[in-house]
């Protein structure tokens, strides 16, 4: 069974001010898509829509029968509160709370799963470390371990490699490749165009509206990238609500 996530003329707004206009297209099941665009293009907003967070949504998003529990989400590192008194293990275990329930005990099999996830991201031995003492790269590895434990069908990554060094990026790209190989759908907001060309077969290029969505070589052309740059810089941040007559590209 294939269950794409389909956008049909979707406009996403904050307080009726559109951040993404009239988006139509689909994420095929098992696809590996980069979302690319300049600052303020609407990339994180799109991730929030996929996470069904509170936003104005016009048009239709068809999740193809997937429930919110089928989605795993890695927010931008800067958005994560690191001051909580939590250990690396606590963070990884949280990946499964939806399935095990908040107060049920954690069995031996699950403890093995956590250990295996930490090993996969190179964080064995860090189980008892407080997250406040981790480097940015170690924190990101820990959050990837949480996603491994979460075992979601769709994995959303918002700028997973910002402020992450090359070696860690390589390791985490390997984990993303593994998820893709397992048939999961991976959607990642990325800024490094070379990295997208090397590792992501599909790209959605947005600049408040869709500039291109499809195979990466066809979408990431110099022309499209120039259009994307010019579109967002020309955008009026205090523009009013979007009218239906604007409903084409
Ligand atoms: N909570 C919010 N309330 C109001 N406007 C918002 C909110 N979050 C984002 N916006 C606006 O929506 C637009 C798109 O923002 P978004 O964060 O989706 O862009 P982005 O492509 O992820 O940018 P960046 O690359 O800088 O992270 C911007 O104009 C931003 O100011």
From TrEMBL:
PROSITE patterns: ABC_TRANSPORTER_2. GO terms for molecular function: ATP binding. Residues 5-233 form the ABC transporter domain. It comes from the Bacteria. Keywords: ATP-binding, Ion transport, Nucleotide-binding, Transport, Zinc, Zinc transport. Belongs to the ABC transporter superfamily. PANTHER family: IRON TRANSPORT SYSTEM ATP-BINDING PROTEIN HI_0361-RELATED, METAL TRANSPORT SYSTEM ATP-BINDING PROTEIN TM_0124-RELATED. This is ABC transporter ATP-binding protein. It comes from Thioclava kandeliae. The lineage of its organism: Bacteria, Pseudomonadati, Pseudomonadota, Alphaproteobacteria, Rhodobacterales.
């Amino acid at each position: 069974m294939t269950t794409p996530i389909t956008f049909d003329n979707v406009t996403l707004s904050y307080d009726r001010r559109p951040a993404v206009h009239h988006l139509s297209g689909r994420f095929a099941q098992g696809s590996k898509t980069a979302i690319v665009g300049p600052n303020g293009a609407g990339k994180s907003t799109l991730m929030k829509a996929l996470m069904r967070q509170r936003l104005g949504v016009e048009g239709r998003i068809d999740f193809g029968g997937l429930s919110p529990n089928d989605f795993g989400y890695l927010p931008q590192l800067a958005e994560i509160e690191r001051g909580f008194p939590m250990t690396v293990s606590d963070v990884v275990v949280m990946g499964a709370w939806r399935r095990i329930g908040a107060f049920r005990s954690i069995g031996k099999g699950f403890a093995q799963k956590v250990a295996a996830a930490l090993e996969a991201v190179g964080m064995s031995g860090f189980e008892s470390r407080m997250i406040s003492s981790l480097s940015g790269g170690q924190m990101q590895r820990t959050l990837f371990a949480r996603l491994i434990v979460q075992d979601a069908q769709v994995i959303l990554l918002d700028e997973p490699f910002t402020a992450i060094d090359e070696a860690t990026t390589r390791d985490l790209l390997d984990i993303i490749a593994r998820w893709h190989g397992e048939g999961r759908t991976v959607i990642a907001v990325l800024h490094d165009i070379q990295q997208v060309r090397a590792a992501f077969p599909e790209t959605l290029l947005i600049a408040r509206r869709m500039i291109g969505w499809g195979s990466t070589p066809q979408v990431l052309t110099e022309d499209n990238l120039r259009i994307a740059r010019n579109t967002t810089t020309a955008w009026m941040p205090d523009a009013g609500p979007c009218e239906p007559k604007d409903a084409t590209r």
